[in-house]
Amino acid sequence: MKLKLSLIAVALSFSSQSFADVNVSGFVSINAGKVLSGDGVPQYGVEPTFLADYPIVSAYTDEISFEPESLFGLQVSADLMDGLSATGQIVARGANDFDAEFEWAYLSYELNENWTLQGGKKRLPLFYYSDFYDVGYAYVWMRPPADNYTWQIFNYNGLNLLYNGYVGDWSISGNIYGGREDDESNKLLSEFFFQEPTREIWKDIIGGVIQASNDWFEIRATHMRYTNERYRSGNIVVWEDGDTERDGKFYGLALNLDFGDAFVLTELNRLDLDGNLDTYMVSAGYRFDGITPYVSYSEFDQEGDGDTEQHNTTSVGVRWDFHPSAAFKVQFDKVEDDSFDLAVAGDSESITIGVDAVF
Length: 359
Prior knowledge:
Layout: H1 2-17, E1 21-38, E2 50-53, E3 58-60, E4 71-79, E5 84-93, E6 100-110, E7 115-123, E8 155-167, E9 170-183, H2 187-193, E10 198-213, E11 217-232, E12 235-236, E13 246-258, E14 262-272, E15 276-286, E16 291-303, E17 308-323, E18 326-337, E19 348-358
Keywords: Signal
Domain Porin: 7-356
Protein name: Porin
């Protein structure tokens, strides 16, 4: 971590002395939590656990801990002039022993006032909160509902074409992207589900996003296709149809209503991959002069050949914006795990508190 941060500092120093206009910003979350009660999954050796974040395996147990969701992020943007810019983002997570890793690293070129071409490593724009998932200050909850944000792959390397413009009173944005991701040691599959080294490959990724909003209403639709290949303990996985590859199709729809004080947030997703995997969430809250109480419900439902994974989470929390750049949050989560054979972490009740800040 120290080496990576030193290299970035040197790069910033060099850039500031050359021709680039460099901007540095950051975000931090200091969170703590514990499981109040829970069943765990005894047949798999899982103690009472609340899995707060699936991709990076942020898991709370009955011992209070600051590590699962605390993180520090730094984003560096360099304007190279004539429409060209470079962006890099590193994140150090408590769930990964605060080892700093690059989450974003890409170049952008403005083709004109509406269109921008980008290439490099970015976050897969599957969900409404994907682009700013790590920036806790940007949303009301402790974290986006875990039942809805469960996928093991969340980055990709490739190209994308962005559009931003207006149609009457509507703000319109779009994104067409393609690429691949090869995660040689996927944390969710390796450490939690299979408990053996697992390499996860998503290739031939191609997708698109369209988003429109006006004063109080916002709609976002997304679709992605990809081919999945997997290795467990170095051996390629052969799926039930005898093939070593399988094709997936992802669909997503988000509808948000914001009336200034009151708001309703919704998101619905489906993954067509050896059957359908459906997730959704709905959340509502009200802003009282910097204090925002909210409720949320999310659900995950997957049915396969004899296997069923079903779990839901009911959340109640409060956000207090005690500073222009920081917010205090407290959230209670109740998980019901109704899975058969594919139990994730069992039923649980947990509490988390924390502070999110940007700078």
